[in-house]
């Protein structure tokens, strides 16, 4: 911030005094009538002040029409014939140049009281003043006392202060210039002051200046300032003035520049400076600092540089704020309290990657809070988490953060294809499953959940992806029958059965490629004959002869019994392969009481009732039902011969056929074919 010492600024000047009235006597440049009219009362004797009661006083204020700051020094002119005359030397410093003078005290050297009432030539020449870096403050003949400086600081900046103090103008001149020099350029340009006024009787009047010193009168002396109980902002400002410019002066100049309400922000900046004299802003200190900044500077353009430096990790060399804990900043922003703060840069979010190994739990908590509060940092934090955590383990990583987990899944449903899916409880699981948007992912999710007894999840996915659910469940159920697949939970079987049951048999049989698949069909139909008959026995028979025969054990018996039941329930030409494949095997198992109960009961309901002394003989009833189907429905006579490989069983069937007239005709047709 230091400026070259050989630089100078140009300053216009003018002189006001008595010449048949108070008027402009000389100037280094033409001054407009409007500006002259404005300066005349300011350069004349202060009302209520006797010319014999002061040595000199200062006045300063901006003159917008001249784009200059008018600094005035007024002396009594007792040599004039008229009482109350004064000389006032005015310097007109360009508003832009006010900020180039770190030490405004240098201007005091340029003031000169006229020595001769007729020689004003020197006031018609332009002046120059050297610019200076922020080092050293000019105090005049003697430095100001701490008491005087503190009194002025409180008068100018304290809450509800009126800017009026009682004192000896000559004694406070140095303090006034010290306080003014401390201000940043924008505040300097708007600051107005006068070091003399009426007596303390005028303390109740509305002040015209930001700072006005009035004469003390007996009984109204200014009380000494309390130097023991100082606020933090007072300590900072006082130390900067009394000890020479400190880093605080640079702090003011950097961060006061774009403050919208200058004088009101001085205390805030001083307090902020005091609180930020730490290596790193973190924890409650960071949160309180951000709270204050947001409360005081809610407008995004008010104090913009201060806020940018505060939330930045990649510091510029000029920054006068300590670095901050990036996770602390993200945690603060996650609360949604970001009014007026700029968006954090990439370096802040990089902390998610850099600190993941040590602070993963904290990062996850911050992210979840950001989602719950709708914070602007939410999306970028999720992107960073997704980048640092492998997709395969992300569900496991966020298992204790359901809100975060759902948001991540919403952004990338593919995360559901993970082993941990089966461990997620309800209702969280269904919230996640609702984000599945492709059939392929639905299939993979069902595979992950197929052994889980979760009716709600099974119902949801079956409703959303009925065809996919049916296919996956069917294939895995068939695989479980082969003992090379996962056990399928009953809730998935029930969910598939509930979906469009009228056409379930047709859909399942169409997919079958083996008798194990057909066994799975039969079991999915709960061995319900009526459900199976939504497909004709002939269609069942056609599929049976077309698929490979691989089913074994109890499931084979269940399939054969079910196919036989379908054939007996609706015997039609073309269903003969069902009888041929199933009759003898089922008859044998019934004879040996080994047919599973769930397979036997549907079949038994289709068998004819006999006399009570014969009703117990289920094998007889089965033979009779089979013979009746062939005879009465005119089934293929050649197929009848293939029903049994056992000679005795085949003879039993022939005998039953021979007991009826139609049966005998059937046997005659069979003989003709032989």
Describe this structure in words.
It is a single chain. The chain is α/β, with parallel strands linked by helices and 674 residues long. The strands form 2 sheets. Strands 1, 2, 3, 4, 5, 6, 7, 8 and 9 form a 9-stranded mixed sheet that branches. About 2% of the residues have low confidence.
Percent strand equals: 5-15%
- Outline: rod-shaped
Radius of gyration: 51 Å
Number-wise, the strands total 11
Give the helix tally.
Answer: 32
Report on the biggest sheet.
9 strands, mixed
Low-confidence stretches: 136-142, 200-205
Helix content: 40-55%
- Provide mean pLDDT, rounded: 90
Find the structural class using helix and strand composition.
Answer: alpha/beta
First-to-last CA distance: 119 Å
Brief descriptors of the model:
single chain; 674 residues; alpha/beta; 9-stranded mixed β-sheet; 32 helices; 50% helix
Fold topology:
Layout: E1 8-18, E2 22-27, H1 33-43, E3 57-63, E4 68-76, E5 86-94, H2 95-98, E6 127-130, H3 146-157, E7 164-166, H4 169-182, H5 185-190, E8 193-194, E9 211-214, H6 232-242, H7 247-255, H8 262-275, E10 280-281, H9 283-296, H10 304-310, E11 323-324, H11 326-334, H12 346-354, H13 356-373, H14 378-388, H15 391-397, H16 402-411, H17 428-433, H18 439-449, H19 455-464, H20 466-481, H21 490-498, H22 504-511, H23 515-524, H24 529-532, H25 537-546, H26 553-569, H27 576-591, H28 597-604, H29 618-632, H30 637-641, H31 647-658, H32 661-673
Parallel strand pairs: 7-9, 8-9, 10-11
Antiparallel strand pairs: 1-2, 1-5, 1-6, 3-4, 3-8, 4-5
